[in-house]
């Protein structure tokens, strides 16, 4: 999984030309926030409901993936909007991997703050493991900065704050809700019968999961400002301490992409449902783990085959990735609308 996400590094911001879907009601702005845990700053992409105006841009366009259109600097739509903090990707993530979801949620009336994780090309495998506890800290730091800032283009309803996480971002969302990993279960995830996703990468780097800092794995990242979370294909879901999950008090929507037979064991979320008091579990059965990526360009699949990479562009023959993204965004928007009532 780690090496797959590095492919997204070629994503960039361009003048809009051929977007995946029309987004003239979606505004876009960029800002940076201090992240004390990292000892530096993090770039945030803010997507918001907008009116006409601004500069057309295309976010996340690459040789493999189509970009998402938005209007940079467009005037915000009237009213106060719920805020969704979006963390998407594995331990190493491309900068705009979640743009397709952020754009869709903004078009449905949400303000979305999308985290831009560190450059995976400069990150070692050992450093990437620190993302398990750094990313939930990123989310809280971003929320603090947003609440203090007075120059955001859109007005935010501070009583309606949610977190949406994919993959390790899903692990972070559960951590923000009050869960934490069990060190022993986490260490066993790369045993012969384990469900770890990145074990080959760890093994080649000589990393023993038993040596990971136990205190950082088990520390609390609970942020009471967050009132609901949506978790999609979470990594390390089977390694959460059961007692920490039972103490989660906010609504949690768990979503897997695929069927019980096709979901990677390391991304399976069904076992979390019974442990979390106020959780709901859904399947998007015509999707796959690759559906979490942006829509591919016509040449994308061929480029991946030439490079010997996994088939990131493969989807169900019956359903397009655009249709899957539309449906998943509807599910996420419905969850937050229900769990973040006015």
Question: How is this structure best described in words?
Answer:
The protein has helices at residues 2-6, 99-107, 125-129, 131-148, 168-177, 183-188, 199-204, 214-218, 242-246, 270-273, 300-306, 321-339, and strands at 12-15, 26-35, 40-49, 55-61, 68-72, 80-89, 111-115, 155-167, 228-232, 252-257, 279-284. The protein is of the alpha/beta class. The chain has an 11-stranded mixed sheet with strand order 1-4-5-2-3-7-6-8-9-10-11, with helices on both faces. Mean pLDDT is 89; it is low at 1-11 and 15-23.
Q: How many separate helices? A: 12
Strand content: 15-25%
Low-confidence stretches: 1-11, 15-23
Approximate shape: globular
Mean pLDDT over all positions = 89
Task: Bin the helical content.
Answer: 25-40%
Span between termini? 38 Å
Number of strands: 11
Main beta sheet strand tally, sense and closure: 11 strands, mixed
Specify Rg, calculated over alpha carbons.
Answer: 19 Å
Give the ordered list of helices and strands: HEEEEEEHEHHEHHHHEHEHEHH
């Amino acid at each position: 999984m780690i090496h797959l996400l590095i492919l997204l590094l070629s994503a960039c911001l361009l003048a809009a030309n051929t977007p995946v879907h029309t987004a003239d009601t979606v505004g876009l702005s960029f800002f940076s926030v201090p992240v004390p845990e990292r000892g530096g700053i993090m770039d945030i992409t803010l997507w918001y409901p907008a009116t006409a105006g601004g500069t057309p841009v295309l976010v996340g366009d690459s040789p493999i993936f189509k970009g998402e259109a938005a209007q940079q600097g467009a005037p915000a739509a009237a009213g106060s909007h719920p805020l969704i903090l979006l963390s998407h990707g594995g331990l190493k993530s491309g900068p705009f991997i979640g743009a397709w979801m952020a754009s869709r949620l903004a078009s449905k009336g949400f303000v979305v703050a999308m985290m831009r994780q560190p450059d995976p090309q400069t990150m070692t495998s050992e450093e990437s493991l620190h993302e398990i506890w750094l990313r939930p800290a990123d989310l809280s730091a971003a929320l603090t900065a947003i609440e203090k800032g007075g120059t955001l283009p859109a007005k935010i309803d501070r009583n309606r704050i949610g977190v949406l996480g994919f993959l390790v971002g899903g692990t972070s969302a559960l951590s923000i809700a009050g869960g934490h990993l069990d060190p022993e279960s986490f260490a066993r995830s790369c045993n012969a019968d384990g469900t770890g996703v990145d074990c080959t990468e760890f093994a080649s780097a000589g990393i023993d999961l038993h040596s990971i800092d136990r205190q950082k794995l088990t520390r609390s990242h609970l942020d009471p400002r967050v009132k609901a979370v949506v978790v999609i294909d979470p990594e390390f879901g089977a390694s959460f301490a059961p007692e920490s999950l039972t103490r989660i008090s906010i609504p949690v929507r768990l979503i897997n992409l695929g069927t019980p037979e096709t979901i990677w064991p390391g991304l399976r979320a069904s076992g979390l449902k019974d442990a979390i008091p106020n959780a709901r579990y859904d399947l998007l059965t015509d999707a796959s783990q690759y559906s979490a990526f942006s829509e591919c360009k016509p040449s994308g699949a061929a480029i991946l085959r030439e490079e010997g990479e996994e088939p990131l562009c493969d989807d169900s023959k019956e359903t397009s990735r655009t249709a899957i993204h539309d449906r998943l965004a509807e599910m996420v928007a419905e969850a937050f609308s229900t769990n973040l009532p006015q």
